[in-house]
Amino acid sequence: MLLLVGYEARPFNLAEMNGMISVAHRGASNFAPENTHSAFQKALELGADFLECDVHLSKDGELIIMHDDKVDRTTNGTGFVKDFTLEELKELDAGSKYHTSFAGEQIMTLDELLEEFYGKAGLLIEIKKPFMYPGIEEKVVTLLKERKNVSGIIVQSFDMESMRKVNLLFPELEVAILMKPSIQHLSTQKIMDLTSFATYINFNVSYVNQRVIDQIHNEGGKVLVWSTKSRRWVDKAYHYDVDGIITDFSIWPVEGPVHLVQD
Ligand code: G3P
Ligand code: CA
User: Residue 41 is part of a domain; what is its CATH number?
Assistant: First the structure.
């Protein structure tokens, strides 16, 4: 049994959030194993507007939903995603490390995520370490071009050149740049360059400031912020004039902190 202690929550809703969107970070990853079907399903139940996920490439070129480039932290396997075929990855247990009640949860492909969840919520798809996977941008774009409507899909990465490439390949698709914590100053010139192809410039809430948010808005861009598992940071994000919040909760944490009690 899984209990949440000392914690209340209520759904985000758009009116309450002054039009901000709520994005479920790796699904509702506070409540279910990250980047799995259970986490995405839970996020829908909690009313998330968008589901965030991370993408790598398998040995046989399939787009795989996982945060790390290795399977070790979240599954019962060891090694790099790129060294497994899809069939081998499907044999791994992506649930038990979070909690035994999720035993047997399988790794998903991006194709499966789109099939099952797109339309029920928007998708924020992060391409992880594109330098490790030559051609990953073309694969993502080819898959997304099969959809009639991509208005609820955003592709993001910490790799600016990768996002420039996605924009060139598929200009109708919205892209986002994730800012690295090491970037302390973003010049107006840089903001103009980024907003020339990226719809969103996204920050960890711990190092964003209202001046930069205003500058991005002035250039016609939008800003999403992501937070850690902390009510304080979610509150801080809410008080900025941003366009959305990416959290593990998918809900508003009223009383914190969160304690997961596992039997
Ligand atoms: O969407 C923002 C966030 O996902 C970036 O960090 O490490 O959780 O992928 P990370
Ligand atoms: Ca991510």
Answer: 3.20.20.190
Q: Of ligand 1's atoms, which has the minimum distance to the CA of residue 156?
A: 1
User: How far is Cα 258 from Cα 77, in angstroms, rounded to an integer?
Assistant: 28
pLDDT at 99: 96
Residue 110 lies in a domain: yes
Mutate to test the pocket of ligand 1, among 26, 68, 226, 245 (most ligand atoms within 8 A of CB): 226
Looking at the domain assignment, is residue 4 inside a domain? no
Across-strand partners of 244?
21, 224
- Residue whose Cα lies nearest atom 7 of ligand 1: it is 67
Distance of CA 54 from the midpoint of ligand 2 (Å): 5
Backbone angles phi, psi at 8, to 5 degrees: -120, 160
Span from the CA of 8 to the centroid of ligand 1 (angstroms)? 25
Ligand 2 centre and the CA of 53: distance in Å? 6
Structural domain contains residue 126: yes
Question: What pTM, to 2 d.p., does this model score?
Answer: 0.90
Catalytic residue among 37, 67, 99, 217: 67
Inside any domain, residue 5: no
Number of H helices, E strands in the chain: 8, 13
- The structural domain count of the chain equals 1
Q: What is the pLDDT of residues 191-250, one digit of tens each?
A: 999 999 999 999 998 888 899 999 999 999 999 998 766 667 777 777 888 999 898 877
Domain span including residue 97: 14-255
